[in-house]
Fold each of these.
Amino acid sequence: MLDATGTAGARVSPDVDSLVRAAQRGDQDAFEQLVRAYDQSVLRLAMNLLRSPEDARDVYQEAFLRVYRNLHAFRFDCSFHTWLYRIVTNICLDQLRKRKVRKEESAVVETSEGVIDRTDGYEEEAAAANPERMTWNRQLGQRIDDALEGLTPRERMVFELRHYQGLRLRNIGEILGTTEEAAKNCLFRATQKMRTRLGDLV
Amino acid sequence: MTCDAVRKLIPLYYYGELTPDEEDQAEAHTHECSACAREMESARALAAALDRRRMEAPASLLADCRADLAAAVRGAAAEPARKPWTLWLDAWGATLAGFTHWRQPLGAAALIAVGFFAAKLVPAGAGGVSTASFVPSEGVFVNVRSAQPDSNGRVRIAYDETRRREAYGTVDNQEIQKLLLAAAHEEDDPGVRVESVALLKDRAGSGEVRDALMNALLHDSNPGVRLKALEGLKPLAAEPPVRGALSQALQFDDNDAVRMQAVDLLTMRRDDAIVGMLQNLVQRDDNGYVRSKCEKALKEMNASIGTF
């Protein structure tokens, strides 16, 4: 049985390679098995990053259609998992960047007390909130989401792949077209930012 | 090793990404240094808290995604130029469609396939196939509903066509306003809804526009749109129906910025009718600004802060 937990690619399973070869030859079962071996982890990644079922659905569709169109050009110079994740992370990063632009455009709010930055407002509000006022879980969940939103798309991606998907930094570097060292620095920055924003909770 | 150097290693230590040497040094240091040991512990606690935020995709979403893909691949499979692929892909599409339910037989999913499909179909010269009118020209969008290959290697495609047109004029123009009103509540893209509401907001004097703004404030799923609607309602904050909508937003909107704006607009003037609501919000609103604003308004009205 295939292990498709996201770490499968790091181990370059011979099963996957032969499935890819078969799919390249036009074997419909093989293509279907490839999709089914990886699609849950792809969907989970998109869902975690974008926190929207509709957006995750779009990412799934676009990613596997690109795989379908370009599989004939895959030359095994990296694992299939890495190749697939390059496609998926590119699509997700585009989405995150678009969102960031949209969010920044609408982040300033005018109140009768003058112009305030909405994102700052959230933080102050959360920090000042009386923990008894709302359930701890809701407060924590909201603050974690805000802290994740505060990362750059790239930091967010590295953090997601390492923390939630359990990929090794070397593999993450390979997926994102950078070095292990750069991925390390990115993860460090991400965790620092999270610490700064969430430090009082733990 | 200094504390600073160790702190840099802590996140990587947690993820098992240090070299064996670095790991030894970090462990030796935290053994001796209680401040760094605490730091290590809080990194672990933070990671545990973050773990609880993991999201799983619902099973129905996976089924929908698989159905989408099957439909799209089926659409692409109808391409005549690559017959061997066509046949197996068609078969594969059918298999996949067989075990997932078809909530959208061929819909939005097929749209994505069109660019690919059309691009492949067109340069082939189509060999006598009457596809010229299919080629999407600029400003025309097609949504393929079905694509059936026949035994002669031709394809029968049913598609909907959407044509892009432009309307140009001032916001006071009736036609323009009608389009903006429609876009403000029907358009899927929240960016377009924000822009439409932003353009309409200065025309809130018209009853139709005011209603559209109130509707956006109460029902739009996007907080950016709701905020723009609030801006537009500002000059009308004294009108009873608008005050009703503002009160609804203040009590039930889950977005802090929206409630902050709503409380500002509602408390711009003295209104004894909202005392009960303000007293209630002082007790239970999650947002500090909203609570303090309610408290201030109550004081100005010489009303008591609590409901007792």
Amino acid sequence: MRFLLTLATVAMLTAAACPAFAQGTGNPPIEVEQPWARATPAGAQTGAAYMTIENKTGNADRLTGASSDVAGTLQIHEMTVVNGVMQMRQLADGLPIPAGGSVALKPGSYHVMLIGLKKPLAAGETFPLTLTFEKAGNISVTVPVQAMGAMQDDKSGGMGGMGGMQSGKSGGMGGMEMK
Amino acid sequence: MRSRQVILTAIAGIAGFALVVLCLAFALTFRGAGQGQHVAAIGGPFTLVDDNGAPVTENTLAGKPSAMYFGYTFCPEVCPTTLLDLSRWIQKLGPDADKLNYVFVSIDPQRDTPKLMHAYLSSFDKHIRGFTGTPEQIAKIAQEYRVYYKRVPTDDGGYVMDHSAIIYLMGADGKLVSVIAYQEDDAAALAKLNKLLATSASS
């Protein structure tokens, strides 16, 4: 009995600890961890969602698209700042997720761009996001919206969270380090 | 035959020497420009509208130093981040903040109407004003400020913009004092803004 209880607890904890799995398949090929998005300014038509995608399979996969009911169009983009010029490029062939590796979508790098927001993303809210992978198929996650100044999935952020700024490199609000 | 060869060699020698002198002269000229004239060449007259729809020119900013940032509201990351950074610095300047102009100039006039910019800027510090205009007017100010911007199509028929992501710090006389790079840390950015404030106190 005790053993069964332990087993059940372990099973429950395991299930709780595992983020979104690809649906429909038995094995957990791709995991989407810590999805988050930034609150958007009033009137803004675009937003960005970030996350870490872990590929636990032995096969390379590719994030090819995304959809959500909060925006009309979702695209996979890469942002770079080169010589003071910001460039944003749609990844036409998707974002490769190497076998056994993980790829971080984060500010200053890759992101899922939300185009044609139906309303601004407000801090504290969540929205559904479905990611489409070439092999793993669709994975749905719930994306929490962080304060506009957030630089990663974190509870801090907002105009008030400036006290703990680290020396030197400031990412944005709350002393989060960028890159 | 021999003398002809001598003459040719001499001509080649003179030509070579002249080329070296010319190159040196060029190098020195450009070095001089890099130190003085080039910096002074950033900025200039413009005619735009602000986010209330009122006409603005370089005279609107005259008398106060200005922090100018060129971007667009369709921008998901760099522009809100920069405007948020700027908002935080403005708050840190305290009452001195009123001694500077802060302007967000759109490089996407097709989408950025005064009304949209006004709504967008309501999410940031109220000191920041939005300027937009016709594509021609924006092209002119971008050229004057040496701002790079380029329209890049996306496969949904839309477009995004590549653009310079630095904040220009202009003196009260409309001449460039310094720039704040994207993601520059708070201490460095505030030092530059305070230096800019000092230029207004001494002038």
Amino acid sequence: MSCLLVLIDHAEGTPRKVSLQMLTAARRLAAETGDSVAAAWFGEDADDAMEALGAGGVETLYWWDDPDADAYVTLPKVEALEAVLDTADVSAILFASSNHTKDVAARLAIRRDGGVITDVTDLAVEDGTIVATKEVFGGATITQSKVADGKLALFGVSPNAFPVEEGDGGEPEVVDLDVELSESATAARVTDVEKEASADRPDIGEAAIVVAGGRGLGSEDGFELMEELADVLGAGVGASRAATDAGWYPHRYQIGQTGRTISPMLYIGSGISGAIQHRAGMQTSQNIVAINKDAEAPIFQIADFGIVGDLYDVVPALVEELRARTD
Amino acid sequence: MKVIVPVKRVPDTAGDKVIDADTKTMDRDAGETVLCPVNEFAIEEAVKLKEATGAEVTVLLIGPDGAQSTIRKALSYGLDGAIQVTDDAISGSDALGTARVIAAALADVEFDVVIFGNQSTDARTSLVPAAVAELLDLPSLTYARFMEIDGDAITVHREHEEGWDVVESTLPAVVSVVEAINEPRYPNFKGIMAAKSKPLDVKSLADLGVDAAAVGAGDAAATMYAFEPRPPKAAGTIVTDDGSGSAADDLADWMEEQKFI
Ligand SMILES: Cc1cc2nc3c(=O)[nH]c(=O)nc-3n(C[C@H](O)[C@H](O)[C@H](O)COP(=O)(O)OP(=O)(O)OC[C@H]3O[C@@H](n4cnc5c(N)ncnc54)[C@H](O)[C@@H]3O)c2cc1C
Ligand SMILES: Nc1ncnc2c1ncn2[C@@H]1O[C@H](COP(=O)(O)O)[C@@H](O)[C@H]1O
């Protein structure tokens, strides 16, 4: 039987939320295509995740239990996926539409005659073919795309596009993969991994709530206030380019056209004007709150709730009020 | 050292963008177009290599005649020459199709490093750099927030959600850069004047030995077949704070109503 394969994105043994969301998507599609749901896990530490994967509907887990998965750049995962393709009849692959994983999809598509659609916000089956919804032009236009018949279809799924829904599956059957890396695969070696603090805050791509700060914060110190607000809400912290350019917050937290694209349940922007390049990265948030002292700031045009006021009056009061209400 | 910088012509983000209803592709002649801003970071890295090692830097653009102003813009940063691949058959290519044309163009030239932008501001797929690397069987050192070349060794800091990986390989290699890598300079008057007379080598698919049937809309592996504008959003609630922070209460009420707390 053919299967839909979900490439599990995980952080040291814990599947990222997007992986469980992709399982929801795969189960929904499989119900219509008649495929089974399979997953691929590259790297060590899948043991603790078995239950979650089973509950997510994974019938077969293709596991390459090898530290080499992360010791080199991109190609080990490509070659491990090739090993899955050699073993199983895969009708489509779902992967997290994150930067590094898009590279895996691109290289695999070249090797195995595939087609890739990135940043997918919905998947459906029409006349037996999987079709993908994707937003372009900063969320202004919604498009439908598909991969040509006969090609290996690869869909890069955006975080928060699907809910996490638990099925009642048992433990998946584990198939150990034997992967012999080519010489090319070991050509680029990862010699060090730098992780910066904030690991206790959710990643802005996945967070249900994102608190973002801009030039209106006035200085780097303003981000302490943003972090305080975020921590009351269990939110991630993001920034506008004006703030990252000024060196107030690292670039990888930048939201916008040349930063991350986020679609949380709630975005709270303070001291951000809402330039088109910023909106390109947050317009699809389900709810938008803006705090800005300029009533004419364009961010108010897309805000569900806006406060015209000084963020240094409003945000500390908000933090206090939220603490009082959530205690 | 020889450096290639593939650059793209994109619509100005602030301008109108139009999808042609018949071909379902972006109408690139409809609005203002610019050199993709992310490519400016790649050009800056190339200019730094030029200053440090005397590297020869060539711009590569896949696109129609109208894109020549984009090529001259890229050259105005003091780069040495350009290759343009232009052919009606390319129109409608997906990212992998574009990658195939770029790889074919690179098969004919000598280079040590290819420096891409990590994404284009219009398509935003980020697929092209890794796909080109695969077609050329080279390492793909993408999302670099730092790069350094020492002899035939290259080190990059590859950005991810939690920080970055330090990655090493030998040249030749394919790199893509994120905007955190540098602050691009502006072209100077001398550069702008000189750009007009820099060599531009225009090639067709036939010149590259690429079968026209293998690229373009007809052979795109991924195609967009329908589109519609996002439905307009209902106007939100706007309150004005009186300087006491009391509007925070209204926001907290709203957040409670929406079940965020
Ligand atoms: C190619 C390109 C790519 C870009 N990519 C991005 C991107 O990815 N992300 C991004 O964000 N931008 C991007 N930009 C930049 C974008 O155009 C804007 O310049 C940027 O978003 C502005 O950031 P900002 O809103 O923080 O600053 P500003 O536009 O300066 O706005 C600051 C706001 O703070 C308000 N303010 C000031 N003080 C206070 C206070 N005490 N209380 C409340 N409000 C206050 C002001 O009224 C103002 O509206 C890009 C630009 C280009 C050209
Ligand atoms: N038509 C093109 N010509 C030359 N380079 C391109 C073209 N399209 C994309 N690129 C390069 O590929 C990078 C990534 O683009 P994309 O994969 O479209 O997000 C860009 O920053 C360019 O460096």
Amino acid sequence: MPSRRQFIASIGAGVVGLVAWRYSVSTGEDAVVAIVRKRLDYLKLDLEGVHTFAKDLIKQQIIAPSKIRLIDMAGPIYTQISSRLKHGDLAKELNHGEERIVSMYLLSSDFFQNGADQNKLVRYVDFYDPFNNIRACNTPFVRPVNYSKG
Amino acid sequence: MINNYDAIIVGTSFAGSFFLKRYLQHAPKTARVLVLERGKHDNKAWQLENRRTSSIDIEDLYVNNQPEKEWLVSAGFGGNSNCWWGGATRMMPGDFELQTRYGVGVDWPVKYDELESYYGEVEEIMAVSGPTDSPMPRSRPFPLPPHRFSDPDALLKKAFPDGWYHGATVRASAPTGTRGVCCGSGMCELCPTDAKFTIQNGLAYIYDDPRVTLLLQAEVEEVMKKGDIASGVSYVRNGKTESATADLVILATNAIFNPYILLRSGITHDRLGKGLHEQLPVDVCLNLKGVKSYNGSTSISGNGYLFYEGEHRRDYAACLLETWNSPFNYRRAALRTEPGRWTERAYIRFMFDDLPRDDNTVSISTTNPKMPVTNFHGYSDYAMRGMDQVPAMVETLSEALPIEDIESIKIGRTTAHIQGTAVMGDDPSNSVVDRYLVHHELRNLLVLGASAYPTASPAYPTVTISALSLWAADHLFAKESKNA
């Protein structure tokens, strides 16, 4: 029969192993999808498109993959924690990171093209890339200068 | 190949190109000018394809001992004009007279009034867009009309008519003939539509002048000298060390490489390499109530002068404000996620002038003498006292903007300006070059660019760099005609 010390050690090793396993299998895709769904729960989202967006976002490496994998590893606990955190630097950083992800999603979707209609299904178009010739001058909020009138 | 020239210019960015432009206007048809550029001609198509402005990695240019403090440079034909954001504000008159007016820092050896007409010329060449009113005296209007304000800018202008202005910028507000109109892509460091002025799209033609020989991928190692005369430069090209001689040598790289090349050449001075500085940037994100943002027509849609000139400069740094008009790309930029409130947010950068510190330096790397090294130990107390005023300044802005809360206040990593390190002044004991950017000891050596700045201004440095290059070239030929 294992001693108490051996028992605690084996539990500890198990937890470490579980965390390492979670980290090794996490891709970040689920975390991105969860964040978009949580923040935009008032919109009807084309879920398949959200998954495609998540894959594309991770490919771009705009947000450190290690950060997204950590969020994914925390899984459902993350959503609980991030929803309850209201103040402090960690809360602000999480909030900011989530806003960046959601911003990229909204800009990559047809949401603003459709006049920000909250009743319409939001579809992912393609990853928002201002260097792309089609996208370069397609910023949804910019009002062009009317140079003919000076 | 004859390696003797009338002039050798090192660098093809603003300082070198504006000098060359004016030099060619004055010089005889028989003049011969050699221009040496370290990088390649990475043209716009290459830049867009590779999503970068230079084929040389910044890590291969210099050692940054504090990488958390960025000093942005882009090596190649056109230099930093390829990666700049296109802010084209003049300095304010008080920036030139900090000591006389406010008892801090030092005065510049040149005054605003002396540069005013040169500023105007630079604005014409760059086709600058700017306001119809102005916080500083001007003798001519901007060549291009102003951009469109965002809604927060419009509110700020209404509340502070003498404190808020359309930005002066080379992000074109109308077609210029060589550039399209800025569409506010928010990616100005590599403008996808080539709407901002660069040397490549605005001044490349001067390098086609038959009097000019442009050598790319020529890395200048030293300024050669004979007694108290600069006799030429040595440079490495295709793995071979070569040299060229000239009657006139012009260093026009930047505030990292100008002092580095001088130090390597043994042309030393107690001030050389000291005082590396730029503005202190503080980025403030404000959540607004009921006001939509990001709807101006260019990436930075307004400039605030409320906290710039004034008696406060005796105690703390002056501040220039800029409104960021893009919800992406920039580190702290993002949309809000609450329903209907996606753009109810203002990003405002507060840029404070800095008083150069002697312990912020450029020197020769001890481990690799072929590289300069930067050391940055912080901003001046004067600039930091300015930053302490940010909450009070936000309170003032709230007279115009319905501010719900402050989302964040962060010190930025860089303003992408590099200044100081070979400063101008009237006294050779405490300055490297004179008011015409001529080296105090080697009188046929000019050291151009923002390395000559004795103090920072909150304003963007580029039009001043360019104006000083025209001013220096004019002086050179005025002196020659006097001597003739």
